[in-house]
Amino acid sequence: MRTIDWVNGAVEIIDQTALPNEERVLRLHTVGELIAAIQSLAVRGAPALGVAGAFGVALAARVHSDDPAALSVAVRKIESARPTAVNLARGARRAAALLPHGPEAVLAEACRVRDEEIEASAAMARLGADLVAELCGNRPRLLTHCNTGGLAAVTIGTALGVVGELHQRGLLAGVIASETRPLLQGARLTSWELTRWGIEHRVAVDSAGPFLMARGEVDAVILGADRICANGDVINKIGTYAHALGARRAGIPFLVVAPESTVDVGTPSGAQVEIEDRGSAEVTAWSEAVNPAFDITPYDLVTAIVTDRRVIRVDRGERP
Ligand SMILES: CSC[C@@H](O)[C@@H](O)C(=O)COP(=O)(O)O
């Protein structure tokens, strides 16, 4: 299953707004449709957004091949469809760099972005499973937040890919997926993926995570990132920071799994990152709400960052 792909001249995605009730594939033919899918979270998760950005430019290149001004407007709109995951603008810019060579060259580059994410997922699964085994020993109980599986990448995923690899090695005792308010990426999507993989799991409300850690029911927290800054600060789904604090207090590892395409050494720290505000409608119809979609976990709460090429032991002073 590929979450996002280029099929017969259009972008095909699994519509993540419909899961787990319905497995629906959407075909996106225009940049407008693609941007709407990104903004509604029909396609979401940092690696998948990078691929969406690149395919979006491939769509634009077909329509506007003889109109450079329209092309650059389209590229800017794609890049800024969501602000926080560095992958989106990166994927779009990689494909856009090929625009002078024509639409086929742009599409070929977009397919490379897709293929690299598939390879990165496989590499992270191996590196991450080795590290969890080293830090936690046999049969750890893991807590994960948001959705970092194949749905958030192209296949396999980041942190959830590590979970899957540990399961395949027979090393996993169980998983707690925090529900991830307000759009329930954990309760809807992670739970759906874990069920498909046959992995035993339970869903916890977000605020239960630190308490479950304090009660000794979690051996490590493992999750993904939308951006990792030069100093090691981790930008990820709102609720991540609270889980990092809980892990530190409980004395258990806090592991971040993300491809190199999410590492942004051009941004010194989390303070410089735009945190998406998704407005109040997603939270409540009864009163005004503040709805930041991501938060910043300071590097000094992070044990290690696992990418497709390296393990960065932040706890030992290593930095991206
Ligand atoms: C492998 S996905 C890593 C992150 O992108 C993920 O944890 C996350 O925060 C996704 O947020 P979302 O708002 O669902 O796109």
Automatic annotation (TrEMBL):
EC primary class: isomerase
The enzyme's E.C. designation: 5.3.1.23
Keyword line: Isomerase
GO MF term list: S-methyl-5-thioribose-1-phosphate isomerase activity
Family: Belongs to the eIF-2B alpha/beta/delta subunits family.
PANTHER family named among the record's database cross-references: METHYLTHIORIBOSE-1-PHOSPHATE ISOMERASE
Protein known as: S-methyl-5-thioribose-1-phosphate isomerase
Organism: Actinoplanes flavus
